[in-house]
């Protein structure tokens, strides 16, 4: 008696039932997706660490620049305030000079008036 050799399908389970090919593909797809997600997380954490390491000194430099900028802004604000005060004082001094010039002109006219009268009388 010869026994017939049974061939086992690659899609068979240990109990001899066959998997549906679509469920096998779905399972493989899920396994691959999970593996890719895990690799993605690892790569993301590696890149994040590298960026933090690379950008750490840059962030320090930017912070120092911002502090210097704020100091300069305060200085410029003080200087602007001082310039505004000087301009206001200059405008006031200009008004006073103009008033003085008007008085000088007025006094000059008063001095010229008697001289002009004496000249008219001599003519």
UniProtKB/TrEMBL annotation:
<protein>
    <submittedName>
        <fullName>Uncharacterized protein</fullName>
    </submittedName>
</protein>
<feature type="compositionally biased region" description="Basic and acidic residues">
    <location>
        <begin position="1"/>
        <end position="18"/>
    </location>
</feature>
<feature type="region of interest" description="Disordered">
    <location>
        <begin position="1"/>
        <end position="20"/>
    </location>
</feature>
<keyword id="KW-0175">Coiled coil</keyword>
<feature type="coiled-coil region">
    <location>
        <begin position="76"/>
        <end position="110"/>
    </location>
</feature>
């Amino acid at each position: 008696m010869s026994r017939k050799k049974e061939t086992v399908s690659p899609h068979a389970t240990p109990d001899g039932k066959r998997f549906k090919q679509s469920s096998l593909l779905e399972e493989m797809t899920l396994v691959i997706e999970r593996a890719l997600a895990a690799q993605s997380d690892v790569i993301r954490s590696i890149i994040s660490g590298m960026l933090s390491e690379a950008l750490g000194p840059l962030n320090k430099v930017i912070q120092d620049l911002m502090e210097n900028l704020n100091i300069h802004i305060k200085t410029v604000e003080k200087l602007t305030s001082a310039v505004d005060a000087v301009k206001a004082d200059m405008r006031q001094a200009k008004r006073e000079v103009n008033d003085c010039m008007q008085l000088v002109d007025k006094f000059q006219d008063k001095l010229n008036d008697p001289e002009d009268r004496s000249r008219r009388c001599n003519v």
